[in-house]
Amino acid sequence: MEPRRARGLILRLRGLGESDLLVDMFTRELGRVTALAKGGKRSRKRFFGLFLLGHYLDMQLAPPQKGSDLWRLETASLLASHLGLRQDFRRFLAAAPVWELLLRATAAQDPNPLGLDLALTTLARLERAADPPELASGLMIYLARLLVEMGYGLSLGACLICGKPGGQGESMRLSLAGGLVCQACLREINQGGDESCCDARAGLVKGLEAAQSLELAALQRLKFAAGLHRQGLAFLAEFWRKVAGRDLPSLDLAQSLLSNIL
Ligand SMILES: [Zn+2]
Fold first, then answer.
1. Element (H, E) at 74
2. Which of 67, 100, 214, 262 could form a disulfide with 250 if both were Cys (CB 3.0 to 4.6 A apart)?
3. Rounded to the nearest whole angstrom, what is the distance from the C-alpha of residue 97 to the centroid of ligand 1?
4. CA–CA distance from 2 to each of 63, 64, 65, 72 (Å)?
5. In which domain, by residue range, is 28 found?
6. pLDDT digits (tens, 9 = 90+) for 206-229
7. pLDDT of residue 199
């Protein structure tokens, strides 16, 4: 079979033997794939400087052999390096969940071009971020919007159980069930305790609604007000752990770093 062109974001790099590399990528054309880069670990000529987390590459990939799902990377060139992430460790740590979620929470070979565009615009924002609130806003918007692009969007207009609209004077809660829940429904689903939710502060709900619905270009200007970052990040990180059904160590680390420096 002929090689295919694919443009993809590097999600993970693993050495194989003395000189080869396994490269996990989220590509526009093929979704998430793993490719073998022969000589990728030490080739000075063919792949020099290309294999770093967060790099966006233009590639030729040879399809897997029968019975395998490993592509072979034939040529590659750099489309975007997101270099600014490497100039400040806080930016890099805030960006790591971007590739971690694409690696751990997407199905293999299931293309999602909007999800990829969201990841690329988020990395472009984080690599220029000047302060912790901007890092937190960029990451929160990514976390909220990727839920939509993957079909897990939060229900934010009304109680997701009884449908009572928000903003009617009654205080709603943000629940890990997937969005707003009113107090009456909360008492029913959550008789034991109060483990799974937080106050649905108006600014937070509004910001999350915007993050879930605006055009990607407009998301660049969206910010969460100071005082909403910690709570919003905590909720989104917890919801993502539930959606992914597994540990998300980079997200844990980004959340704890940002909570400490905000
Ligand atoms: Zn309700």
1. strand 70-80
2. 100
3. 32
4. 8, 11, 12, 12
5. 1-81
6. 999 999 999 999 999 999 999 999
7. 81
Predicted pLDDT at 211: 98
pTM (2 decimals)? 0.95
User: How many Å lie between the centroid of ligand 1 and the Cα of residue 197?
Assistant: 14
Ligand 1 centre to CA of 151 (Å) is: 22
Query: How many domains would you assign to the chain?
Result: 2
What CATH number is associated with residue 253? 1.20.1440.120
From ligand 1's centre to the CA of 180, what distance in Å?
Answer: 8
108 and 33 housed in the same domain: no
Tokens 């990377």, residue located: 73
Q: Is there a single domain that holds both residue 36 and residue 126?
A: no
DSSP 83: G
Question: How far is the centre of ligand 1, averaged over its atoms, from the C-alpha of 178 (Å)?
Answer: 13
Alpha carbon of 163 to ligand 1 centroid (Å):
6
Distance 239 CA to ligand 1 centre (A): 19
Residues in the chain, pLDDT under 70: 44, 167-170, 190-197
Each residue's pLDDT tens digit, 150-172: 999 999 999 999 999 876 666 78
- Residue of 239, 249, 153 whose CA lies nearest to 196: 239
Closest by Cα among 192, 193, 205, 190 to 235: 205
State the distance from the centre of ligand 1 to the C-alpha of 185, rounded, in angstroms.
4
